[in-house]
Amino acid sequence: MAGEEIVPRAGDIVPPAGSQAASNGQLSQKQLVRQIEQAQLELGRTVDAITDLVKPANVARRSTDKLRQRAATVDPKLVAAGAVVVVGLVGLLIWRRRR
Predict the structure, then answer these.
(1) Where are the domains positioned within the chain?
(2) Between 56-72 and 29-54, two packed helices, what is the crossing angle to 10 degrees?
(3) How far apart are CA 20 and CA 18, in angstroms?
(4) Can you spell out the DSSP letters for the chain?
(5) Which residue in 31, 43, 75, 83 has its CB near the most CB atoms, within 10 A?
(6) What is d(CA 88, CA 26) in angstroms, rounded to the nearest whole number?
């Protein structure tokens, strides 16, 4: 294993746009290094995005934002009807205690 040259098959790797593959279908060492560096950058971004997604503070913030959006879209007539019901129940409880 150690010291062996790893040569990808031409069909396994798609060269980046604008790069020139060797005439025998193999990529040069510089092209491989560039592809590895690009893959590392993309993997790092993916890990950062996943970390950001599952961070408890961010989960709580997103949940709060969703609740605020839902509360903002509640029909005012429903809110008024709910308030009338609450006031009616409180009034009924007060009336029963005074009797």
Answers:
(1) 7-54
(2) 60
(3) 7
(4) -TTPPP---TTT-PPPTT----TTSPPPHHHHHHHHHHHHHHHHHHHHHHHHHH-HHHHHHHHHHHHHHHHHTS-HHHHHHHHHHHHHHHHHHHHHHH-
(5) 31
(6) 81
Place of tokens 């995005």: 49
User: For the chain, what is the mean pLDDT?
Assistant: 82
Q: How many residues does the chain have?
A: 99
Q: What is the pLDDT of residues 20-32, one digit of tens each?
A: 555 556 888 999 9
- Give the predicted TM-score (pTM) of the model: 0.43
Q: Cα separation of 51 and 55, whole Å?
A: 6
Q: What is the separation, in whole angstroms, between the first and last Cα of the chain?
A: 93
Total Cβ atoms within 10 A of residue 28: 13
